[in-house]
Amino acid sequence: MLVDLNPYVFRLGPIGVHWYGLFMALSVLAGAIYFYRNGMRLGLDEDFLLNLAMVVVISGVVGARLLFVLANYPAWFVQDPLQVLRVYEGGLSWHGGLLGGFAAGWIYIRRKGKDINALADLTVPGLTIGYTIVRIGNIFNQEVLGRTTAFWFGRWPAQLVGSAIGLILLIRFFYLRGQNLPRGYQFWSFLFYHQLLRALVEETVRDNPLYLWKYTNPTLGLGVFTLTQLFTPPILLLAWWMMASTKKNLRVPK
Asked: Under a CB-based contact definition with an 8 Å cutoff, are residues 20 and 116 in contact?
């Protein structure tokens, strides 16, 4: 485990900018720029794209924080409500962010009569960049720790494992982008493979509480089943079904 890392980029009196917050802001900015530019190339209205981006980002952060607190520190809602708002200190749920952003975006897109699948594809770079660099922020905050092992490195670098998953899926997105894929396939296949890799690799070496049937291997530093792993099968089924359903919306080659 890394020690003595300063979680702040800089401080101005009582105000401090965390690495975690900086990386999150950069990933949101990169994702929003890609989403906006490629949305404009699809002939979509500028105001619609900007409004949608704000709706998704705000709803995603709210959903990510609420689910994290609900799953880990539900007493905060009553005992320390201000702590719920301290997103900059870390503590966001990936699934909560994805659910919050997708639900709010889906409602807004449906009201405007646009194609949600085509727009969902444009969010993948932002999601993969975010997962890649925010996991680096977790290192500075000393969270998302790996399990201890008998190997020479002592503890699995779970944050770097997560970053590697995000980077692999980002490369995969751009590799597939030029192919004649159905609208929505990039998003749903990203969700499928991200969840699969996270459950099989990252969560297995991550030092999270175990539920139901519990198995740990202290020598290898492995453990199952975490809460994320238990929720993985229905998510995989949903993503697989949506991937199959997109085949009727094949893009016309340019």
From this structure: no
Sequence spans of domains, the chain: 8-44+114-249
pLDDT digits (tens, 9 = 90+) for 78-132: 888 888 888 766 678 999 999 999 999 999 999 999 999 999 999 999 999 999 9
Sequence-distant (≥ 6) Cβ neighbours of residue 115 within 8 angstroms: 109, 183
Closest CA to 89 of 20, 151, 32: 20
